[in-house]
Amino acid sequence: MRIAVIPGDGIGPDIIRQALKVLDRISKVYEIDFEYQEVLMGGAAIDETGRPLPEETLEVCKSSDAVLLGAVGGEKWDKLPGHLRPEAGLLAIRKGLGLFANLRPAILFPQLKSASTLKEEVLGEGLNIMVVRELTGGIYFGQRGRRMGPSGEEAWDTEFYTAHEVERVARRAFEIAGKRGKKLMSIDKANVLESSRMWREVVSGIAGDYPDVRLEHMYVDNAAMQLIRNPRQFDVIVTSNMFGDILSDEASMLTGSLGMLPSASLGEGRPGLYEPVHGSAPDIAGKDLANPIAAILSTAMMFRHSFNREDAAAAVETAVEKVLDQGFRTVDIMQPGMTRIGTEEMGDRIAGGITKN
Ligand code: NAD
Asked: Which atom of ligand 1 is nearest to the CA of 283?
């Protein structure tokens, strides 16, 4: 398996080092060969080449089986024009790899329940919701403009979807639901928006191809409320770019800890991109303080979604749970009575805990 590795900026290199320890251990225990190629993106690439996503990086990523990314950005590059900032590299790589489905699991480990802002009785035995967000269409990419009208300035953005764009992300979501709790909630605003009415028709139209998955629909305003009221009713959520942007942040905050959340972005027959949800946290970079679990759980998603190795994915997740059970915590998830450890030790302990199931 060829993996393009982009450590990036800030804590990116700190956490990617730990993810690589885990990959090396999986390689040994499960006898999978990995070939890593490290490439530049973000601020590190700007310093070296003047551009946030050098052509060579995109080419290496395109010819890999998967891409593992730390995080990009930092104050040093904040004054550059928008298209030359590190974050422009993120949009460019998603576009360049045709990544239209963004998978954001909101997992609350039972060991970390007290980190959530929700009451214990609402959380039950922890949470495990998967938000599948359409990533390359909708209002963020639709026509927009500004002009002077007869009564002053006017501005508009357009929510635009083709049925094909809806179908391909919905099929991904059905497949994922089929491998999990077999429940799919499609979220839209079909009581108001024409684009949502088509979204609903397309999703309903393909449901027959997935007879083992139960499909339901919910309006986005109700979904925002239900995520707080009773989050355990959700298994997999599929929704448009903007609704997904908002709801995935809401869902992830139910878990209370940014350093624990992985993500995957997938296209059709292209390498998937795996990265933590958090940013480059320049305030703690290089200080052995960053929580590497989001990056490590991103490798579990890589095994599940790119390499079809559920066994290795489960082994990584079990190793994370084991270390939490043993009471080890990085500073961001520290609780009374637990043992505080640094980035490197967390990586060593998780990698060391990987066994063949
Ligand atoms: P951030 O996620 O980097 O940090 C927010 C807070 O959470 C900070 O206090 C940080 O110390 C803490 N934190 C984040 N990840 C952590 C971890 N793994 N372990 C422990 N603590 C952690 O968000 P920000 O401060 O708004 O942004 C910093 C930089 O990251 C900016 O340049 C921003 O543009 C960039 N950013 C990049 C990405 C990405 O690469 N995907 C995403 C978001 C922000």
From this structure: 11
